[in-house]
Amino acid sequence: MKFLNFPILISVLILWVGIIISDSVNQHYTSVSLPGLPEYQPNEYRPDFELADLNGKMHSLTEWAGKVVVVNFWASWCSSCVKEIPVFIHLQQYAQQGVQFIGIVVRDESETVKRLLQSSGINYPILITMTEQQAQQLAEQWGNTIQALPFTVVVNRAGNIVSRFARAMNETAVKQAILPWLG
Q: In the chain, what is the greatest distance between 2 CA atoms, to the nearest angstrom?
């Protein structure tokens, strides 16, 4: 009886584990992407907010009523947050079809955020929370009960929350979340 070659057996095992890991990493994004977030509720109306931009001008979510709104909670010190900014910049091209990206900065310094805005070319509104308590309350109102960053919520034209994501999103995932609501 011929014995299996140990290095080949190990190689097959590593390949098999790699396939399993790859499947879990490349999973489809769902309306709730991490345990601990609230379950999707049909017709869950989005909360409103009133926050200042970096120039001090106040904005309310009602400014973008009737649009598909992508609300992204982020911070400049969060590498995953910064990584997804170019995706949002690129997909703001759907603005003519009724999509609006909005960045909400949490737990960050406004001067640091201003420098990042200048260097990255962000082409969508950036609003800033004033205190840690305000950031936490706002995130929880939007369903971020685990205080994850980045945290993104998609709101349809009727103002209902249709997706929540507690991790960085790639272009495919964002398109999957917004395109069904543009029709």
A: 79
What is the pLDDT at residue 13? 52
Residue with the two structure tokens 């205190």: 131
Is the Cβ–Cβ distance between 94 and 127 less than 8 Å? no
For 145, phi then psi, to 5°, come to -75, -10
What is the C-alpha separation between 39 and 72, in angstroms, rounded? Answer: 19
Q: Sorting pLDDT into bands at 50, 70 and 90, what band is 131?
A: confident
SS3 44: coil
Tell me the one-letter amino acid at 103: G
Q: Beta 50-53 vs 126-128: how paired, if at all?
A: antiparallel
Partnered with residue 165 across adjacent β-strands are: 152
| pLDDT recorded at residue 10 | 58
The CATH superfamily assigned to 30-181 is: Glutaredoxin (3.40.30.10)
Per-residue pLDDT band for 36 (boundaries 50, 70, 90) equals: low
Tokens of 72: 């992204």
Question: Is the CB of residue 141 less than 8 Å from the CB of residue 47?
Answer: yes
Please report where in the chains the tokens 């069904």 appear, as a residue: 180
CA distance 40 to 118: 36
Q: Where is 161: in which H helix or E strand? A: strand 161-165
Q: Where do the structural domains in the chain lie, given as residue ranges?
A: 30-181
DSSP structural state of residue 62: G
